[in-house]
Structure formats: structure tokens, C-alpha cells
């Protein structure tokens, strides 16, 4: 079955190209993650917002962005893989239908042969 892969705009693990024919997701990766409750935000007074505070905030913001980007990429890869598998499944179903038609044709041919010349 020759189904061309979609544009590889989605990077694979490690930043390599994403190929939906090769990438396999584990059951844990496909399982929905539980929704965690967020902790209540604690207001930090302006006088306590020192260099250490802003450094931690900056690091946390960067980590949150990386996490969101990674989740979005993984969700996109899963949907591309699902679409690829659906197309592959449809092509395989067509192959099976063609093979069944061919089998029926050969059975009919064999039945005609056996009717003329006796059973094999």
C-alpha cells in the first residue's frame, strides 16, 4: 500500500521528521491524562517581588510554554497518525474486497471445471 505521508511539518521525537507510518504511541501515551486541580493563586505583594521572584516566574513561564507546545505537538501527531491509519485501513479493506472477488471468481471457475471434468 503506497499512501504518501502528509507534509512533515510536525517534528518527531528529538526534532526529527515525523513519519506517521513509523511512529507508534504506547497505550499510556494515548490514555487521557487526569485533570489536575490548580492550586489557588497566592498574591505576592509588590515589595516581595525581587530578582529571585522574577527569575522563577520567567523560568516557570518558559517551562509552561514548552509543556503546552509539547502537548500540542503530541496531539497533532496523534491526529495525523489516526488519519493515516484510517486511510491505510480503507485501502486494506479495498484490497480484502478485491481478494474476495478474485476468490469467488476462482471458485466459480473451479466449479465449472469440476462440472465438466469431474472433481479433482
Automatic annotation (TrEMBL):
SUPFAM superfamilies given in the database record: Leucine zipper domain
Transmembrane residue ranges: none
Biased composition (Basic and acidic residues): 19-31, 43-54
Subcellular location: Nucleus
Pfam family, one: bZIP_2
Leader peptide range in chain numbering: none
Entry-linked InterPro entries: bZIP, bZIP_sf, PAR_bZIP
Keywords, alphabetical: Coiled coil, DNA-binding, Nucleus, Transcription, Transcription regulation
Gene Ontology molecular function: any one: DNA-binding transcription factor activity, RNA polymerase II-specific
Region Disordered, annotated ranges: 1-72
Cited PROSITE patterns: BZIP
Coiled-coil stretches: 75-116
Entry keyword Transcription: yes
GO CC list: nucleus
Superkingdom: Eukaryota
Domain BZIP: 50-113
Recorded family membership: Belongs to the bZIP family. PAR subfamily.
PANTHER family xrefs: D SITE-BINDING PROTEIN, THYROTROPH EMBRYONIC FACTOR RELATED
Protein name per Swiss-Prot or TrEMBL: D-box binding PAR bZIP transcription factor
Taxonomic classification: Eukaryota, Metazoa, Chordata, Craniata, Vertebrata
